[in-house]
Amino acid sequence: MPSFDIVSEVSVQEVDNAVNTATKEVAHRYDLRDGKCEIVWDKKTIVLKANDEMKINAVRDILQSKLHKRGVEISSVKFEKPEPIGGMMLKQSGTIVQGIEKEKAKEIVKSIKDSKLKVQAQIMDEMVRVTSKSIDELQSTITYVRGQRFGLPLQFINMRS
Questions:
Q1: Residue 21 parent element (H or E)
Q2: Does 152 lie in the same domain as 80?
Q3: Residues 73, 153: contact at Cβ < 8 Å?
Q4: Are residues 48 and 60 in contact, defined by beta-carbon separation less than 8 angstroms?
Q5: pLDDT by 10-residue block (mean), the chain, 161 residues
Q6: Strand, helix or coil at 95?
Q7: Which among 78, 63, 75 has a CA at the least distance from the CA of 19?
Q8: What's the structural domain count of the chain?
């Protein structure tokens, strides 16, 4: 029976490359030199540090532009509000979203069932598997899900016939 999987994955290598290029740009930007701006990346979270909110916003914008150029969806990094860390410095943490949470997966399955397409959707760990007798129905489902807004980047993988 033909099927495919809906996942939300981010390439850690592309994020690493984007963080490295953003760090270089921050180090060379004239308006950020005296701000003690820093980007710290530990493979799960990205921490931005600066001495005022304007500079932390500028660093975040640089990072987001580098992520976009690398093909990483900006919505895959969830940033918290900037918080003071002492010494007139601010810190803003961003976590990389990997996998689909159970609530979002339920929302995706419900949306697919409400679309009246002749497919079956089921939640499997951090992904949603969609099966059907017809490949055309699966392609219609992909088009339908792409048109919806679920608040996280979705990829369609493992198309099997």
A1: helix 12-28
A2: no
A3: yes
A4: yes
A5: 90 93 91 84 92 91 94 90 89 91 91 90 90 90 90 86 75
A6: strand
A7: 63
A8: 2
